[in-house]
C-alpha cells in the first residue's frame, strides 16, 4: 500500500523535457541506423567485411531504440517512477544489458577484424564473409545474450523488491555485467588499435626505406649510363627509362601517405597498361613477389582509410559509456556512497546518445557512406 501511495505522489511530476528529448533521440537513432543498413545493402562499394560488422552494430542500436528506449523514456517522463508490470521491467533490463553489451562486443569484433586485415592482408578476404568473420559476428551476439541471461533466469527477483523502481537489483551482477560488457573488452580493443597503428607506421617507414633504396639505385644507373654513353655508343639518354616520379625529388621524411600512394604502386588487378622501368624479369618468382608486394600496398592503403573512421567510433563509445559504467559500478560497490539520481539519469542518457552518433560519424569520416547519404536523401521527398 505505501508503494502505491509513492507511485501516485510521483506521477504528478511529469518530465516533459525528457519526453521531448527521448522522442527526438529515438527518431534520430532509427533514421540514422536504417540509413547505414540501407547503404550497405544498396551500394556495391560498401559491401565489405568491415561494413558488415558496422551493420551488426547498427542493428544493435536499432533494437535499442525500438525495444529499450520507449520504456526508458516513459519512465523518465514519470520522474523515474516505474508504474508497469515487473515482468516487463525484467524484460527491459535483459534487453538493455544485452544490446549495450552487443554494441561494445561488435566494436571489439571490428577491432579484431581490422587487426587481422592489417597483420595478414594477403590472407584477408575483404569482399566476402568467411568462416572466421561468421564466428566473430555470432560470438558478439551469443556472448551478449549470455551476459544478460541471469536477468532472464530471475536474478532480479529479490525479497522486498521496490515495484516503483526498475533497475538491476543484485549488486554483484551489476559488477559482473560491467566487467564483462565494458572493463574487459575495452582494454583489448584499445590494445588492438594501438597495435594496428604501430604496425601501419612501421610498414610506412619500411616502404619509405625501400623507396629510398630504389631511388638511389635508379640515380646511379642513370649517372653511369650518362657517363659511359660517349665511349660505348649506348643509345641516347632520351631512350632511357622516364625520370623518377616527383615524389622522389622530395625529402622522404616529408612525404605524406597520400603522396606516397599516388600511382607509384599500380593496382595489380587493374586492366590498364602500367608504365614501368624496362628491366628484364629474372624469374617468375620475382614477378610474383612484386605482384604480392603491390597487392599488399593496395590493401594497406585501404586499411588506413578504414582506420580513419573506426577509432572515432570507438572514442565516441568510450566517451558516452565510460561515465555510465563507472557510476553504476560505484553504486554497486559502495552502497554508502551518495550518488544523486540525476547523475545516474544523465550518464544513462549519455550512453544512449551514442546510438545516434555512429551514423553521424560515418557520414563525416567515410567517403562511401557520405556519397550514398547525399544520393539517397534527396530521393525521399519523391518517394513520399
TrEMBL record:
One GO BP annotation of this record: phospholipase C-activating dopamine receptor signaling pathway
Localisation: Cell membrane
One CC-aspect GO term: synapse
Organism: Culter alburnus
Family: Belongs to the G-protein coupled receptor 1 family.
Protein name: G-protein coupled receptors family 1 profile domain-containing protein
Domain spans labelled G-protein coupled receptors family 1 profile: 32-362
SMART domains named in the record: 7TM_GPCR_Srsx
Transmembrane spans: 20-41, 53-73, 93-113, 134-153, 173-194, 306-326, 346-365
Main location: membrane
Entry keyword Membrane: yes
Keyword list, A-Z: Cell membrane, Disulfide bond, G-protein coupled receptor, Membrane, Receptor, Transducer, Transmembrane, Transmembrane helix
Alphabetized GO MF terms: alpha2-adrenergic receptor activity; dopamine neurotransmitter receptor activity, coupled via Gi/Go
Membrane topology, as annotated: Multi-pass membrane protein
Amino acid at each position: 500500500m505505501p508503494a502505491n501511495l509513492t507511485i501516485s505522489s510521483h506521477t504528478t511530476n511529469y518530465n516533459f523535457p525528457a519526453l521531448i528529448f527521448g522522442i527526438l533521440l529515438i527518431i534520430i537513432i532509427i533514421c540514422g541506423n536504417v540509413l547505414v543498413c540501407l547503404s550497405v545493402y544498396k551500394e556495391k562499394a560498401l559491401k565489405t567485411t568491415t561494413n558488415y560488422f558496422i551493420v551488426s552494430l547498427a542493428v544493435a542500436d536499432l533494437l535499442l531504440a525500438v525495444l529499450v528506449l520507449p520504456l526508458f523514456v516513459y519512465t523518465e517522463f514519470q520522474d523515474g517512477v516505474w508504474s508497469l508490470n515487473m515482468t516487463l521491467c525484467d524484460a527491459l533490463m535483459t534487453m538493455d544489458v544485452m544490446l549495450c553489451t552487443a554494441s561494445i562486443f561488435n566494436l571489439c569484433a571490428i577491432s579484431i577484424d581490422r587487426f587481422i586485415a592489417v597483420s595478414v592482408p594477403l590472407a584477408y578476404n575483404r569482399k566476402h564473409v568467411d568462416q572466421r568473420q561468421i564466428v566473430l559476428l555470432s560470438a558478439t551476439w551469443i556472448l551478449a545474450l549470455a551476459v544478460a541471461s541471469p536477468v532472464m533466469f530471475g536474478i532480479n527477483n529479490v525479497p522486498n523488491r521496490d515495484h516503483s523502481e526498475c533497475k538491476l537489483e543484485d549488486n554483484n551482477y551489476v559488477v559482473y555485467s560491467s566487467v564483462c560488457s565494458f572493463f574487459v573488452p575495452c582494454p583489448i580493443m584499445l590494445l588492438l588499435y594501438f597495435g594496428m597503428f604501430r604496425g601501419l607506421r612501421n610498414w610506412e617507414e619500411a616502404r619509405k626505406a625501400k623507396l629510398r633504396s630504389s631511388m638511389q639505385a635508379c640515380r646511379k644507373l642513370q649517372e653511369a649510363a650518362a657517363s659511359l654513353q660517349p665511349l660505348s655508343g649506348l643509345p641516347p639518354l632520351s631512350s632511357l627509362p622516364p625520370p623518377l616520379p616527383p615524389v622522389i625529388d622530395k625529402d622522404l621524411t616529408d612525404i605524406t601517405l597520400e603522396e606516397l600512394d599516388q600511382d607509384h604502386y599500380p593496382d595489380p588487378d587493374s586492366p590498364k597498361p602500367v608504365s614501368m622501368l624496362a628491366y628484364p624479369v629474372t624469374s617468375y618468382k620475382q614477378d610474383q613477389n612484386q605482384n604480392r608486394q603491390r597487392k599488399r600496398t593496395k590493401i594497406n592503403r585501404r586499411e588506413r582509410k578504414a582506420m580513419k573512421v573506426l577509432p572515432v567510433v570507438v572514442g565516441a563509445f568510450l566517451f558516452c559509456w565510460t561515465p555510465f559504467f563507472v557510476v553504476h559500478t560505484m553504486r554497486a560497490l559502495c552502497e554508502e556512497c551518495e550518488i544523486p539520481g540525476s547523475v545516474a539519469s544523465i550518464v544513462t542518457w549519455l550512453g544512449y546518445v551514442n546510438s545516434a552518433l555512429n551514423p553521424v560519424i560515418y557520414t563525416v569520416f567515410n567517403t562511401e557512406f557520405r556519397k550514398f547519404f547525399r544520393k539517397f536523401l534527396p530521393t525521399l521527398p519523391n518517394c513520399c
